[in-house]
Amino acid sequence: MLDYIRSYLDPSVQQTPGQAGNLFWALVYILIVFAGVSLIVVCMNWLERKVLAHMQVRLGPMRVGPHGLLQPIADALKLILKEDIIPQGADVFVFWMAPLIILLAVFSVYCVIPFGPTHAITDMNIGILFMLGVSSLAVLGIVMAGWASNSHYPLIGALRSSAQMVSYEVAMGLAVVSVVLMTSLNPTGTGTLSMIGIVRAQQAQQIWFLFKFFPLGLISFFIFAVAMVAETNRAPFDLPEAESELTAGFHTEYSGLRWSLFMLGEYAAMIAVSSIAVTLWLGGWMRPFPHWLSGPSWDLAFSFFPALTFFFLAGLTFYSTRRMPKHPYFRVQTLGLGALGGVFLLIALILSVPGVRRSVQDVYWFVAKIAGFLYLYIWYRGTFPRYRFDQLMKVGWKVLLPLGIGVLTLTAVVGVLQP
Amino acid sequence: MSDPTSPVFPLDLDEKERTFLDANELILNMGPQHPATHGVLRVILKLDGEKVLGLECVIGYLHRGVEKIAENRTYTMFNPYVDRMDYVAAVSNGLGYCEAVEKLLNVQAPPRANYIRVILTELNRIASHQLWLGTHALDIGAMTPLFYTFRDREEILKIFERYCGARLTTHAFRIGGCQYETYPGFEKDVKKFLDFVAPKIDEYEELLTTNRIWVERTTKVGVISAKDSIALGVTGPVLRASGVKWDLRKAQPYAAYKEFDFEIPTGQNGDTYDRYLVRMAEMRQSMRIIRQAVEGIPEGPIMAKVPKVLKPPVGEIYHSIEAPKGELGYFIVSDGSTQPYRVRVRPPSFVNLQALDLMCRGQLVADVIAVIGTLDIVLGEVDR
Amino acid sequence: MPEETRLPSSSPPEGGDKAAAKSPTEKPVAAAAPPAKPAAPAKPAGPTPQPWDSPLVASLKRQFGSGVQALTYLGQNYLEVDRSLIPEILEILRDQEQFNYCVDITAVHYPKRERQFDVLWILYSHPRKERVRVKTQIAEAESIPTAVPIWPSANWLEREVFDMFGIQFSGHPDLRRILLPEGWKGHPLRKDYGIIQQDQEWVQINLGIESGQ
Fold this sequence. Notes:
By secondary structure, chain A is mainly α. Chain A has 17 helices and no strands.
């Protein structure tokens, strides 16, 4: 057994646990990914409220813990303890299944997301197809939720979301295909659908696909970036759960834990589609300028970034600790904040250790790029009004789809003409 | 309804028994607990998919019997009650009532009182429009303007608070003039507010006026023609956005409005976007009026000579003012006693809300929300 | 219910001997007995309704003769018209005299009178920039033709009058209660409507307490 575990750690195994067929490590990875994503969702929940609040000249959560840091935990506790209401006349089984299906679909996507060259649960040769296919299963959960609630608002929300997801999936697929075309621009002329393969192709071509064939990569990325917001039902495409129209859309009748599963699914989906975008256009786990700024000294400099980030966070926390009110009432909070700063400092120190430094590099850059997308999500929400249903459809079918087809064709043509 | 003389007929919600499979039409109940119905409005929508075939408003959830209360209070005692109707524009309500009773008593408020009235009423108009803008934008999905407008509205409420101690239901005026002299620094505060709010209004416009989604969401939504507006008795910015240049401040000047130079902004298309533009322009015009009023405020008494016990002579009067929502009228019948024999309030929101059906037919569910927002109703006034 | 009514105050017309019983609407021939009697000698009699002359009035008088009284009070003009003229005169006001905007429809209750209700139409003309009130008297059980075909805005306004006074508007497309719930008893703005009694009834049914006061 120990040998079985140790066999994967052999440096010669440059493969994901899935590829190596190592069940134990695959399970460990699954647990890590699940826990990590849940943690990011919790952080995202807090960050979204804080960032949005500061965009809107208010403070956001401030009461539970210093700067509301414990707010997500308090919310989670509340949601778990809350009464779980099933409306009269609801189809109980379907009602019960819907959030699970969404979660299942969303978390399955994480199977193939490459956080690093070997840091993925598995690498499939049809990775991107698997991702698109599985993530679109989430719409089933939404439709089920809408149908099973036996109520008009969820029903309309579910209808909207199924139409919306189906139409944006097409544009999304076209954008993805144009990237897949780009991967085939190598001497052998064979492209790949594997997520790791796509990043490796970018490595080999020494360019992020975002900048490939200058405007083309950018346009396909733009199409994907719009479609992914629509896919995850976030503002300005949050029609299925349009608060002011349909109260809460498909999850109007859900409460307590089940509702929180929907939220977990939504945020996990946001991270999932962001990671697709990062993998396909932004060079996945690669650090910025791996070829231009190459050489051992640059490598060393960039390898300090993870530690620097946590040093920065620790500094920020200590600064906030200094700024906390001096009143004894805030003593516990101040101490807590200081302790958090200490934790950040500790993490930063651990990350500075040479061995750790090298191995977290890939994951760090990947997560940093995702964080950029998550910030964009919050920013959209603070800025845009909501589209109307027919306008949303118009954007999907009349703007993004032709654009996607055009980009795809042009990419193919340019790819062929390329020497 | 191109012919304005044909009434908007009510929905026939139970025209025939529908089987389960005949699901072409969906009856959707919106409210009275709904985030976008601005209080306790209940709208029953008849939908074909998302298209609105017709709707029916159910109101009265906030009915407090203001008119009946009036019959059991003296003229003075009833004055604070009117603030509770359109609670976001309490000053306007008070102005209309006080002026109506003054007319009935045949007294004139002194010029200084009139200037104070104009300043406070116009400040209140800005506050009301800001609240409208915030909630309207929130309905359409833009969260952020709400917080900006509330931040700036706060400054107006602070001025009210310093003037009369109350922020929302101000009871700022008395029959015959004003109770309170302006506090020291009132003019400075108001001027400071004007300088503060002018760039803020530009900021709102920056967020919305050219925002593609905002424009798409509001143009050609809830269109009402000038003819229909008049036929349905619609007043205020909604009427002006349809291109009718009619404002009671100009048509039948009251208080000191004759002495100020301002324009009546109008729109052309009568859609939600035009109504938005008209209200934005109105805020700027209100600022103009306030500036003139603050600069030209005369010295003198603030209260006309009115007896302690008000006994208006037998008679009846109708007086209306241009409230932020439209024509706010008071019809008061006096029987010569200390209590009004009958007070009828002509609420602008109530009459404007009647146009909702016409404006929403053939539009989508999301537009209903936009139109409810753009009508700028306050349920306290609709239901009284 | 009526005998239970304890109007805490007000309802002056029932104050019997008060001059108020002759409220302003009570003067059929305003010119003849103008200061009817706000009686109280303390007041210098206040302003009184004066006859109102204008081309509009002249043309109306030509058509309807004595059915129309035109008066002006405190600068506001109003017409007192016979109930039988009602839909006709409103139509003429809209079509010929350009009163295109029906501001308000309301009513006043005078329980001591034989014809208990005053029904009022407050009209405005955008082209003429002029306001006029049309007033008529109807009795308890009488109905009155609706103004909805003339001004669509009358729809809700008439419903409210029906709700509050129980006045029937014949021909109204949808005459239901508007502010009060279906099944409410009585019409609150009538002078004989007991507010205390209604309050007690409601709390007894809904809250199980004796009185809300």
